[in-house]
Structure formats: C-alpha cells, structure tokens
Automatic annotation (TrEMBL):
<keyword id="KW-0472">Membrane</keyword>
<dbReference type="GO" id="GO:0098609">
    <property type="term" value="P:cell-cell adhesion"/>
</dbReference>
<feature type="transmembrane region" description="Helical">
    <location>
        <begin position="151"/>
        <end position="172"/>
    </location>
</feature>
<dbReference type="GO" id="GO:0005886">
    <property type="term" value="C:plasma membrane"/>
</dbReference>
<comment type="similarity">
    <text>Belongs to the TMEM47 family.</text>
</comment>
<keyword id="KW-0053">Apoptosis</keyword>
<keyword id="KW-0130">Cell adhesion</keyword>
<dbReference type="InterPro" id="IPR004031">
    <property type="entry name" value="PMP22/EMP/MP20/Claudin"/>
</dbReference>
<dbReference type="GO" id="GO:0006915">
    <property type="term" value="P:apoptotic process"/>
</dbReference>
<feature type="transmembrane region" description="Helical">
    <location>
        <begin position="110"/>
        <end position="131"/>
    </location>
</feature>
<protein>
    <recommendedName>
        <fullName>p53 apoptosis effector related to PMP-22</fullName>
    </recommendedName>
</protein>
<keyword id="KW-0812">Transmembrane</keyword>
<feature type="transmembrane region" description="Helical">
    <location>
        <begin position="77"/>
        <end position="98"/>
    </location>
</feature>
<dbReference type="Pfam" id="PF00822">
    <property type="entry name" value="PMP22_Claudin"/>
</dbReference>
<dbReference type="GO" id="GO:0005737">
    <property type="term" value="C:cytoplasm"/>
</dbReference>
<keyword id="KW-1133">Transmembrane helix</keyword>
<keyword id="KW-0965">Cell junction</keyword>
C-alpha cells in the first residue's frame, strides 16, 4: 500500500472524494459543448453530446441539429447518462459506507462492482459517439474531439481506478481500521552487543 496505507483515519475519505471528482467531470462532459470543435479558425463546427452546430465562415449564428434524431445519438447519450446516474448512486453508497463504521466493509466490494458497470456504460457511450458522428454527420473543415469529450474520458479513467480500489479495499480491512498490533523485532544480547 502507499505510505498512508489507507490506515490513517483521514485517508478513508480519499475514495469518495475521487468519486466526487469523477461526478464533477461527468457533469462537465454532459453539459459541455466541446465534444467536437473546429481545430482552427474559422470556427464553423461544434458539437455536444446532445446536438451538432455549424455556421458559415462569415455567419455569427449557429445552426444546430439535435443528435437525438439519430438512433446512435440516443444510444450514446443514454449509455453515458445511465453510467453517470449509477456513478452518483455509488458516490452516495460510498459516503454511507465510510460514515457508518458497522456497514463500511459490508458492501464496499459491491460498490466496486457497480463502478465497473459505470465504466462499461461510459466507455460504450464514448466509443459510439465519435465513430457514428464522423460517419453520419457531414464535417466542415478540420475538426477535433475536444475538452468536454476529454472530461468524459477522464471521468471514466477515475471510475476504473476507484473500482479497483473498492474491490481490493476489504483485503486490508484490519489495516484501515487499525486492528493490527505492531510487530517488534529484537535481537538477543549475543547478536547485538552494542545494545548493552
């Protein structure tokens, strides 16, 4: 384990804090308009998880088209949103698990399993979106998948890391709770004459 070893009492909130960070990144991904953007000026294309917008080089107004009119758009949004909702539930369960001492390790592995489900849903949404978007939406100019799409992947990576820790944490239950007595090593006087 790390130096903290999750044995210090303050470290128990590290995993729920990371889940909270994943939720914040997920909100940014869901609300952000930067899933796809023009790479350089003139900026004529931008898209979110929900819609795709284009404009002419001299035009100031965006013409937006809903991606919910496409089956793949609904699928990408639904899978990412379902993963996000389960992530919020896992966050609430983690706060409960680390707040109530009796329940703490009874369902921590279950939270880890749910987090793997979250990661699977989010990865499906994050893969469907760029593949089908580039196939079915006409792109203008040079484009790139941008910051909001990156926040979606960052949230997924944090969720995968937390899932591994939640699944492995019960193996170190005694260390986390401080139930292990320290082991002292000593030598007999014959082997350590400098102790006299």
């Amino acid at each position: 384990m790390v130096v903290c070893g999750l044995a210090c009492w303050r470290c128990r909130w590290l995993l729920p804090l990371l889940l909270g960070l994943a939720i914040i990144m997920g909100i940014i991904a869901l609300a952000g308009r930067g899933w796809l953007e023009s790479e350089s000026a003139p900026y004529v294309q931008q898209a979110s998880l929900w819609e795709s917008c284009t404009r002419g080089e001299e035009d100031l107004n965006w013409n937006c088209e809903s991606l919910m009119d496409y089956g793949w758009g609904r699928a990408a949004a639904a899978t990412y949103l379902v993963g996000f909702v389960i992530l919020v539930i896992c966050f609430a369960l983690a706060v409960i698990a680390f707040s109530i001492e009796i329940l703490r390790f009874n369902f921590v592995r279950g939270i880890g399993g749910l987090l793997f489900v979250v990661a699977a849903f989010q990865i499906i949404g994050l893969v469907i979106y760029p593949v089908k978007f580039t196939e079915e939406i006409p792109l203008a100019g040079d484009n790139m998948f941008s910051w909001a799409y990156g926040f979606g992947w960052a949230s997924t990576v944090v969720v995968i890391g937390c899932a591994f820790f939640f699944c492995c944490l019960p193996n170190w239950e005694d260390e986390v709770l401080g139930n292990i007595k320290p082991t002292y090593y000593y030598s007999s006087p014959e082997r350590a004459p400098y102790l006299n």
